[in-house]
Design goal:
Layout (H helix, E strand, L loop, with lengths): L10 E3 L3 E4 L6 H15 L12 H17 L3 E9 L3 E15 L4 E8 L8 H16 L4 E7 L3 H9 L3 E11 L5 E10 L9
Parallel strand pairs: 5-6
Antiparallel strand pairs: 1-2, 2-3, 3-4, 4-5, 6-8, 7-8
Helix pairs in contact: 1-2
Length: about 200
């Protein structure tokens, strides 16, 4: 099936969160969240090395909205739920990336806004994306990858029921240019796709 015909929800509600596709006009709120978080993100995220200008954040939101519509990438912003599923503070971002619709296979990525450390936010978002992948999109495999030194990210994957598959030694460059190792976690259909608490 052509991925453009696949119905992917642009909005997911969980107990405490609202995940939704970036929209035109989200640039200012995303820009503020990234600026708040640079110190924590800088060691892990190549895109978080300098403060982004506001227009760059808006361009990113518009580009990601288009890529979502084309089913090339499935990015989501993470908001706290406010009242009857209204949007509260932006808590971070997540999404399903490096998609292979032929398998189907997805890689979940995430980051949390500094100073908004509501316990378990990223885990709750990962559970929601995992359910979307397996229950609605027919995933056979879902991965989470991270720098081998990012222990907090590894704990998120482990708590979400992902299995550590292995270490890819010196497979990419860290933001500082040095070679880094990557930890790979996965869940596969028929083995671990049942959501765990």
């Amino acid at each position: 099936m052509d991925p453009l015909l696949i119905d992917v929800p642009e909005r997911i509600e969980t107990e405490r969160l609202l995940l939704r596709c970036p929209q035109p006009g989200d640039g200012p709120v995303l820009n503020a969240a990234v600026r708040d978080s640079l110190a924590e993100l800088r060691p892990w995220m190549p895109w978080a090395q300098v403060e982004p200008p506001l227009d760059e954040s808006e361009t990113y939101c518009r580009r990601m909205h288009a890529r979502f519509g084309l089913r090339e990438d499935l990015p989501m912003l993470i908001f706290a739920r406010d009242g009857a599923a209204g949007e509260g503070a932006l808590l971070g971002a997540c999404g399903m990336h490096r998609i292979d619709w032929n398998v189907p296979r997805f890689e979940i990525g995430y980051w949390r806004r500094s100073g908004h450390g509501v316990k378990g936010v990223i885990g709750e978002a990962v559970h929601a994306l995992n359910r979307l992948a397996f229950d609605r999109l027919g995933a056979q495999r879902v991965e989470i990858r991270m720098d081998a030194g990012n222990a907090r990210s590894a704990r998120v994957a482990e708590r979400a029921g992902f299995t550590f598959e292995g270490l890819l030694r010196q497979d990419s460059r860290a933001p500082g240019g040095e070679l880094r190792d990557t930890r790979v976690y996965s869940r596969v259909r028929g083995v671990e796709e049942v959501d765990v608490a």
